[in-house]
Design a protein that fits this description.
Layout (H helix, E strand, L loop, with lengths): L2 H21 L23 H4 L10 H15 L19 H10 L9 H4 L4 E3 L9 E4 L15 E7 L2 E4 L8 E4 L9 H4 L1 E6 L4
Antiparallel strand pairs: 1-6, 2-3, 2-6, 3-4, 4-5
Length: 201
Amino acid sequence: MSKNLYKNAVITIAVLTLMFGGLSACSYMKGTRNPASDRTKTYGANDPKSFKINEAADAPQWEKTADAIIAEGIRYFGTPYVFGAERFNDKAFDCSSYVQYLYGNQGIQLGYNSREQAVQGEEIPFINLRKGDLMFFSDEDFPNETGLNKVRHVGIYMGEGKILHTYEEGTGVIISNIHKDEKEGEYWYQNYLFAKRVISG
C-alpha cells in the first residue's frame, strides 16, 4: 500500500470514529438492564399535565425562557427516540437533538451533540440546579471513559427533581425522576456528571 493511500485510509477511519463517537454521545441501550419492565408503558404520563408555568408578569426573564422551553418540550411527550436523529426535525429526536431543537427555538444555540453542549454555559452545583439547566450523564455501559468522553446523555432539569429528556427506542420523550424513578430507579442520580446553565439571568 502506498504511503498516500495508507495515510488517506487512516484519516478516513479517524473521521468516521470521531463522527460515530459524537453521535454515540446520546446512545442508550438501557432497557436490557430491566427486562421485566413494560416497554410499551408511558412512564410519568401524568407529569406533563402537572407542569405549571409561572405566568407572573414580574417573573425573571430566565424563568420565562425556561418555562417556554419546558412547555414546548412537553408537547413532544412520547415523540420517538431515533439514534442520530436529524437536527431541527421534530418528528424524532435523540437526546442532544431534542435539547438543541428546544433551546434553538428560544434563540439559544447549542452544539450538535451532548459533548459539545457540555462545554457550553456555566457549571452549576447539583444543589443549585434550577429549571432550564442542562444535566449531563455517563452511561454504565462505558465505565472506562474519561474526561469529556464520559458524557453520554443530556437532559433538561424541570425543577422538583425531574428531568425532561429522551434516551431509548420504545420510550421517546419522557419525564424521569432523578431519584426513585419508576423505570430506572437510581440510575440517573448514580450516573449524573454535572449541570450547565445556558439560560442567562
